[in-house]
Automatic annotation (TrEMBL), chain A:
Superkingdom: Bacteria
SUPFAM superfamilies documented for this protein: HupF/HypC-like (SSF159127)
Originating organism: Plantactinospora endophytica
Native organism taxonomy: Bacteria, Bacillati, Actinomycetota, Actinomycetes, Micromonosporales
Coiled-coil ranges per UniProt: none
Transmembrane residue ranges: none
Protein name (record): Hydrogenase assembly protein HupF
Similarity section: Belongs to the HupF/HypC family.
InterPro entries: Hydrogenase_HupF/HypC
From TrEMBL, chain B:
Primary gene name: hypD
Protein's name in the database: Hydrogenase formation protein HypD
Provenance organism: Plantactinospora endophytica
Keyword Acyltransferase: no
Gene3D superfamilies linked to this entry: 6.10.20.100, HypD, alpha/beta domain 1
Pfam families xref list: HypD
Length: 90, 375
């Protein structure tokens, strides 16, 4: 649960400015982006996702490095992605 | 992979190891605490201790949110889960954490409706979908996670969801570091500061560690080279006679943290006068409860909570491991009675727990090799 997972912002959800579709390791999920309201997020930006919320904006370089770190982690990352797949916030 | 090389390059790691050795004064022992469980994981996984000179030791701190939950709080949560019409929700990591009587998994098998969620927002959705049930989210975590709970409560209030509440167990990192600094058991020379917590709180809250306790702190990233570089920075401060808070992880951690996240916590939660930490005992102002204004979302006010206090099992030495006094393998039950499959202590449950990290990766560490060759 403590993991921050990088995701790429695909698009904002219509009529819900706090929500965006974010793709994390091939899993597309709605993520709450209200904590980054000051960052003027755009599609194509990378964010660190933690328990359904985007916690910080990061560069693509950083995102790739964190992804590699998580993939090496093995089971805990697989568990986190499984949990993310069940997530359906709205 | 091009991007990763920047943080993984073995040549750079060896070069840094050389620079670290050059900064150490011969004959002096250096002991640094990595506060965050994510760092512990990287250190064991990559065998980073083997890159450090013999007189530099890394000790593990209390920064694993699952590990510091006292058994009594698990029993309290199970008591709530067993009340009529309740759906208890929490993160997957909580499911196997042993309470005094049982774990969430055991209670679920015995008939309680306990569900794993990825996000507190998923718990809120379950509440909306089940208007005749009372949905409780067992919230755990440091400042990394507390804003998510706070934002979820704000959303529940906005949407008028009146069957959702939070059993709040959020803890704050600064008082725990303070407790460790005040503990006579351990003399530390500096800290590797937590990465993700600092994205929320920023770097300023650590100032007192440098100013009042005279210990340097470097906020560190999670890559192997991040950690080696942070150790190098700590040694640099000691060599120069400086004592500051430095940010090695500036590519992710803003100096002032995340003001929106901090405002959400401040609005929805209040510091508790005291809270029990597993192994560390009661620490004043170290945890968050729900603010009076949000009492309607506070499971502790909506349900009768027994407030059970359970002493840790005698065999378990999680407390000493969380304070960095013992290395995981020095615990009497490590790897024998206590394993990730059948954990006795919380440090063995979570992947960020020092014991689980060592059990999974740490078998070839420097100390172990030394131990083995001595016999």
């Amino acid at each position: 649960m403590c993991l921050g997972i990088p995701g790429e912002l695909v698009r904002f959800v219509a009529d819900q400015p706090d929500l965006a579709l974010v793709e994390v390791s091939g899993v597309g999920r709605r993520i709450n982006v209200a904590l980054l309201a000051d960052e003027q997020l755009q599609p194509g930006d990378w964010v660190l996702v933690h328990v359904g919320f985007a916690l910080s904006k990061i560069s693509e370089t950083e995102a790739q490095a964190v992804l590699a770190y998580l993939e090496e982690m093995g089971q805990p990352y697989a568990d986190e992605l499984d949990a993310l797949r069940t997530s359906n916030i709205g | 992979m091009r991007f990763v090389d920047e943080y993984r390059d073995a040549g750079r790691a060896r070069a840094l190891a050389g620079q670290i050795a050059a900064r150490c004064r011969p004959g002096r022992e250096y002991k640094f605490m990595e506060v965050c469980g994510g760092h512990t994981h990287t250190i064991y996984k990559h065998g980073l201790e083997d890159y450090l000179p013999e007189n530099v030791t890394l000790v593990h701190g209390p920064g694993c949110p699952v590990c510091v939950i006292p058994m009594g709080r698990v029993d309290d949560a199970i008591h709530i889960a067993e009340q009529p019409d309740v759906i208890m929700t929490s993160f997957g990591d909580m499911m196997r954490v042993p309470g005094g009587q049982s774990s969430f998994l055991d209670a679920k098998a015995a008939g309680a409706d306990i569900r794993m969620v990825y996000s507190p927002l998923d718990a809120l959705k379950i509440a909306r979908q089940n208007p005749h049930r009372r949905v409780v989210f067992m919230a755990i975590g440091f400042e990394t996670t507390a804003p998510s709970t706070a934002m979820t409560v704000l959303r529940a209030a906005e949407q008028g969801v009146d069957n959702f509440s939070v059993f709040c167990n959020h803890v704050t990192i600064i008082p725990a570091i303070k407790a460790i600094l005040d503990s006579p058991d351990l003399r530390l020379d500096g800290f590797l500061g937590p990465g993700h917590v600092s994205t929320v709180i920023g770097c300023r809250p650590y100032d007192f560690i440098a100013r009042e306790h005279g210990k340097p702190l470097v906020v560190a990233g999670f890559e192997p080279l991040d950690i080696l570089q942070s150790v190098h920075m700590l040694l640099g401060q000691l060599a120069d006679g400086r004592c500051e808070v430095e940010n090695q992880y500036a590519r992710v951690v803003p100096e002032d943290g995340n003001p929106i996240a901090l405002a959400a916590i401040a609005r929805v939660m209040r510091l508790r006068p005291y809270f029990e930490w597993r192994g560390l005992g009661f620490i004043p102002y170290s945890a968050l409860g729900m603010a009076d204004e949000y009492a309607a979302f506070d499971a502790e006010r909506l349900f009768e909570v027994p407030g059970i206090r359970v002493a840790d099992p005698k065999a378990c030495q999680c407390g000493e491991v969380l304070k960095g006094v013992l290395k995981p393998w020095e615990c009497k039950v490590f790897g024998t009675a206590c394993t990730p499959e059948t954990p006795i202590g919380t440090c063995m449950v979570s992947a960020e727990g020092a014991c689980a990290a060592y059990y999974n990766f740490g078998r070839f560490s420097r100390e172990r090799v030394r131990e083995a060759t001595r016999v």
